[in-house]
Amino acid sequence: MKKIVELSNVIKEYGKSSNSFRALKEVSFDINEGEFVGIMGPSGSGKTTLLNIMSTIDKPTYGKVLLDGKDLNEFKGENLAGFRRDNIGFVFQSFNLLDNMTVRDNIALPLTLNNVRHEIILQKIDTFTKLLGISDQMDKYPVELSGGQKQRVAICRALITDPKVIFADEPTGALDSKYSSDVLECFKNVNSRLGITIIMVTHDSNAASYCDRVMFLKDGKMHGRLDSNGNKQEMFTKVLDMLAILGGSDNELL
Ligand SMILES: Nc1ncnc2c1ncn2[C@@H]1O[C@H](COP(=O)(O)OP(=O)(O)OP(=O)(O)O)[C@@H](O)[C@H]1O
């Protein structure tokens, strides 16, 4: 199995040395290509810090991160931006769609900015919007969509550049349970049909139950992992049990 993300001894310190705070403490793990991985843990445990470091948004203070075999420490400025554009898709809790653009133009944006040919953009939009069940929403504006539809548009926009990995930070955090499940089914589809690796930070045990593997952080350190056998209900129960051991119920972690 090919490794798509490799972290070794990653430490992240915020602030100046005399008054610094260590948010990640020697974190090491690998993620295989095609995995759907969840990251959970109490508030302040370092989940977003970890996601930002894996996704090139931030750099570790010490340690090494490889993405598709490339050492992220070696990319700077324009090269880093190019590497991010070519390899990584992002999905955020707040959707981050542009309100004055149609759904079609929102999805096309990463390719329009790259001067990709119009016919190619339309072809890709057609493929991905069909996969995500939003092909009839193309002429609408974000304000005319439900939260679940907005997040599906955001997933399409993340897919349009053919990323190797999609990083999602609390993608269901702003959705009620019905729309959350729709969005998670979409992620599952994208993962299983297109083979794209998905790495998702979540507080939601139901969201975590869709993952192949869930890794738990506490106080900046890895505190175990759970692997799914494909049974969502069993995974959900195992996740709840693990959260209880970590010192908080599902609700307390919100
Ligand atoms: N830019 C920063 N400067 C200083 N400290 C920071 C910064 N960003 C995060 N931290 C601290 O690092 C720790 C980890 O933060 P992080 O946002 O990664 O946690 P989290 O697990 O994602 O939390 P939550 O679930 O509440 O979003 C927290 O104690 C936080 O206060």
From TrEMBL:
Superkingdom, taxonomy of origin: Bacteria
This protein's UniProt keywords: ATP-binding, Nucleotide-binding, Transport
GO CC annotations on file: membrane protein complex
ABC transporter domain sequence ranges: 5-244
Pfam families cross-referenced by the UniProt entry: ABC_tran
Regions annotated as coiled coil: none
GO molecular function: ATP binding; ATP hydrolysis activity; transmembrane transporter activity
InterPro entries the UniProt entry points to: AAA+_ATPase (IPR003593), ABC_transporter-like_ATP-bd (IPR003439), ABC_transporter-like_CS (IPR017871), MacB-like_ATP-bd (IPR017911), P-loop_NTPase (IPR027417)
Record bears the keyword Signal: no
Protein family: Belongs to the ABC transporter superfamily.
Protein name according to UniProt: ABC transporter ATP-binding protein
Organism per entry: Virgibacillus salarius
